[in-house]
Design a protein that fits this description.
It contains 17 helices and 20 strands. With 447 residues, it is an alpha/beta fold. The protein folds into three domains: 88 residues, Rossmann fold, CATH 3.40.50; 209 residues, Mur-like, catalytic domain (UDP-N-acetylmuramoyl-L-alanine:D-glutamate ligase, 3-Layer(aba) Sandwich); 132 residues, Protein-Tyrosine Phosphatase, Chain A (Alpha-Beta Complex).
Length: 447
């Protein structure tokens, strides 16, 4: 790969443009091809860097002569152009793999079905507060490749999706984190859960004995995989239920870490983030910070002042004593499970979007206990109605965010919560989950 000269990039978004900039800097002949439209700000960057690009098509003769292809994570392997590339034996890799070849600083790779954005941002916060100049990239913020091209950091904290992991060959994080595994994106994995699980564990496949693998020891699927597969990295488990000899666990409502010679403790009630899932996110981030030799006082202080992530259980406004919460980032049922679990008041639940093979059964006990009305927001709500129609008396279908929020306001009484936690992808009515969350916040502010 290092000797390859023609670099073709599929997708002209953040990761594509960042890879193009790094590719040009490293002497590649670069071509960017996007089957959709490229945003104006990215076109300006491409023009400024004198990079060749096309949009709304894939010109085969300009793509199939590549030495290496970087595919943006949103493009499925079954798309016709990717199939052609694979047939021709042309390497198709992810931005993570491409950029990794040009660094000699450590990376922290964080993946999981849920919690990876919060864990990534919290980890980055802890390390930055500890005085290390780490970049924040991957599935979040400015492109990893773009930051590598600028070369300003002494390491990187990367949020990595399963799609990005599918495109790695040599990528080796010094510290890997797997927050949890639950069925997600099964439409991209032939509806085969095992394929998705294997994809997540690619994060540790190139690790060696002097690397670390941090994982949730309470997660049944993770435990099963570890029992049945060999792993070279040093394992660092965390758990809410078990006492661990070397790991992070809970005793007397206090987080206790025994992963280094010095024991670390932090009372749960001093964490800035609420909810059991966030205790786990804090444990994972703490493990990384300790391995990076951040001082205990700094870790404690940073865990207590972290501000949280936009679109993840974000309190928007309280109107007439009704709290509106934006959890647009909940794009699967497992994420929505965490959201409903942390609700302490009767909840009007806004749900729906593009179903990715959801099984709503796991939500049933929480819905019975906490939800008083459901507002469906999606083009096809049949599955949601079938799942909860016999459990919830009030179910209303809506076709826009403004309508959904107004409907929720009518259904809510003093002391209730209106929760947007869609459990689905957003691409039927919105550009992405950020757009969905921003529209929710705007609609709430317009009430």
């Amino acid at each position: 790969m290092e000797n390859a000269k023609r670099l073709v990039i599929l997708g002209g978004g953040e990761s594509g443009v960042g890879t193009a900039i790094l590719g040009k800097k490293k002497g590649y002949e670069v071509f960017v091809s996007d089957f959709g439209k490229i945003k104006d700000n990215y076109k300006e960057v491409l023009a400024l860097n004198k990079l060749e690009w096309e949009e709304e098509r894939h010109t085969e003769e300009k793509i199939l002569n590549a030495d290496v292809v970087m595919k943006s994570p949103g493009i499925p392997d079954k798309s016709p152009i990717v199939k052609l590339l694979i047939e021709k034996g042309i390497p198709v890799i992810s931005e993570i793999e491409f950029a990794y070849a040009f660094i000699d600083v450590p990376t922290i790779g964080i993946t999981g079905s849920n919690g990876k954005t919060t864990t990534t941002m919290l980890t980055h916060h802890l390390i930055r507060q500890g005085g290390l100049n780490m970049g924040l990239a991957g599935n979040i913020g400015k492109s990893f490749a773009w930051q590598v091209a600028e070369g300003k950091h002494e390491g990187y904290v990367l949020e990595i999706s399963s799609f990005q992991l599918d495109g790695i060959e040599k990528y080796r994080p010094h510290i890997a984190v797997l927050t949890n595994i639950s069925p997600d994106h099964l439409d991209r994995y032939e509806y085969n859960y095992e394929l998705y699980i294997d994809s997540k564990f690619r994060i540790t496949m190139n690790q060696a004995e002097d690397d670390f693998f941090i994982y949730d020891a309470d997660d049944v699927m993770i435990a099963k995989w570890i029992d049945n597969n060999k792993m070279r990295a040093t394992p660092i488990p965390f758990s809410l239920t078990k006492t661990l000899k070397k790991g992070i666990y809970i005793k007397d409502n206090t987080i206790i870490s025994t992963i280094t010679n010095e024991e670390f403790t932090m009372p749960i009630n001093e964490l800035s983030l609420e909810g059991k899932h966030n205790v786990k996110n804090a444990m994972a981030a703490t493990a990384v910070a300790q391995l990076m030799k951040i001082r205990k006082e700094t870790i404690r202080e940073s865990l207590s002042n972290f501000q949280g992530v936009e679109h993840r259980l974000e309190k928007v406004l309280k109107i007439q004593n009704v709290q509106y919460i934006n959890d647009s980032k909940a794009t699967n049922t497992n994420a929505t499970f965490f959201a409903l679990e942390s609700m302490t008041a009767p909840t009007i639940w806004i749900v729906g979007g593009v179903d990715k093979g959801n099984d709503y059964d796991e939500l049933m006990p929480l819905v019975r206990e906490k939800v008083k009305a459901i507002v469906c927001l999606g083009i096809d709500n049949e599955k949601i109605i079938n799942a909860f129609g016999n459990v919830i008396d009030v179910m209303v279908e809506t076709t826009s965010m403004a309508e959904a929020v107004k409907t929720a306001q009518k259904l809510a009484e003093k002391g209730d919560v209106v929760l947007l936690s869609p459990a689905c992808a957003s691409f039927d009515l919105f550009e992405n989950y950020e757009d969905r969350g921003k529209q929710f916040k705007a609609a709430v502010q317009n009430l």
